[in-house]
Amino acid sequence: MVEYVAAVDQGTTGTRCILFDSQGHSISQAYAEHQQILPRPGWVEHNPIEIWHRTQEVMSTALDSSGLSAKNIRAIGIANQRETTVVWDRSTGKPYYNAIVWQCMRTQNICSKLIADGLEDFIRERTGLVIATYFSGTKLKWLLDNVPDLREAAERGDALFGTVDSWLVWNMTGGTDGGLHVTDITNASRTMLMNLKTCAWDQDMLDLLDIPAQMLPQIVPNSSNTAFGTAVFPGSQTIIPIGSAIGDQHGALFGQTCFAPGEAKNTYGTGSFLLMNTGDKPVPSEHGLLSTVGYALEGQPVKYALEGSIAITGAAIQWLRDNLGLIQSAAESEAVASSVPDTGGVYFVPAFSGLYAPYWDMYARGTIVGMTRYTNRAHIVRATLEAICYQTREVLQAMENDSHIALKRLQVDGGAVVNNFLMQLQSDILGVSVVRPRVGETTALGAAYMAGLATGVWSGLDDLRTNWQVDREFSPEWDAARREAQFRDWRRAVGRAMRWVTPEE
Ligand code: ADP
Q: Is residue 314 in contact with ligand 1, taking CB distance under 6 Å?
């Protein structure tokens, strides 16, 4: 019997469900955006109920358009936007507040205090993370400190915390009627509450942020045929096992079959995330990267990764479209940017959420420099695409410095890699080849692989490796002089964006 796996990719911009066959081919998919709630400068929220509804819709639509019955689906896999923080009531299923999204900077003051208290080394040693508004821990503290009665409810055990994986699994497995309260190890590693060595909640971190342990989910591996329970497939009566949950970037690492130490991928979505597999032990970073869990299969040692996280890449293209009206669609950026041979000296540092790796400056803000009257819309659009590539070069260099491995080629994926001009620019700016696989939706594919491994669709990693195929390889065309001169100017532009705002009193 032909068997399929349904993967949900609950991303920052929208939710996708893809049905994969056993060769890893996508046979049907559905996608729905959800609302970005921006109540104040720098604050970003999502409605968790809307996310749950969109998830059910895309699952049911993908199934309908495939012509399959839910009985053909062997397992459900889940990948999700990481760090985004949800708290809800165990007996009503209602969220206490909107989800606080990873990009949200409302916890700047909490982070500044942790830094002022000299906790950077301690937190890095325990969690592998830097102190930044990015991670869930300070978001959860903010909710406990600011939402009326939440702390009491958490202490009574009525309020549950979860990242989006937990929220979806709890709802899929019955919600108020016995829903499972679990989180996978990759999502847990992004909360700033998990000890990276023991992979358990760290009591010192909980004490530091004043978080009641009762509200935390149980940490489980990414791929398991028991840990995530079962769900009625939306739009059907059929009960299907949930075989996996994994943070989106870790899903992409697995979907790209980066199973060996030194193998790396970069994903171009809302932000960009370069992850390198570092094997069985966490590698501490000295160059502004994060140490994180790569992935964990049930009963096998945890695989670790180094990560360079960039907050804003594809989101800057959306901003050109939605806030400035310079382009009608993200795809139009390709034709507009390629209509000019260069940016005419313009650099755009899209530090809308501060700067993440390798700078970690939460006081940086978006900056466009180098404009003259000659500057036109094409230069700005091209500078936006170039910014995506320069930021990637900065994290790639940090990765090489930390790992002592020189990357000869970069495997890419994510929504923006359909842009051939962007991929060519990336190769030119890095000076290494950029390789795009046939399946661009590697995040969903990784979640599908994890779920299919747990339920016997695939027997092991070698099965998966044979599915990976190149779509196109881009090779560098710029000479070294141009590459280095422009990169130097990019770094000068970054200098102008840094420490733009001052900490609030
Ligand atoms: P996420 O998983 O973070 O929600 P996706 O992987 O779905 O993101 O990618 C969506 C992002 O890709 C958007 O920010 C969008 O601006 C960008 N994008 C999509 N198509 C293109 C394109 N042709 N050129 C440049 N950027 C694009």
A: yes
